[in-house]
Amino acid sequence: MVPWTTGAFAAGEIVALSAVLLAMGLRNPRLLLQDYPGDVRAAVPPKTAAERRETVWWNLPFLCLLFGTPLAAAVVARLQLPALSFPGAFTNAFIVMIAFDLFDWLVIDWLVFCTLTPRFVVLPGTEGMAGYKDHAMHFRGFLVGLGLALAASAAIAGLTLLLPA
Question: Which end of the chain is more exposed for a tag (fewer CB within 10 A), N or C?
Answer without folding.
Answer: C
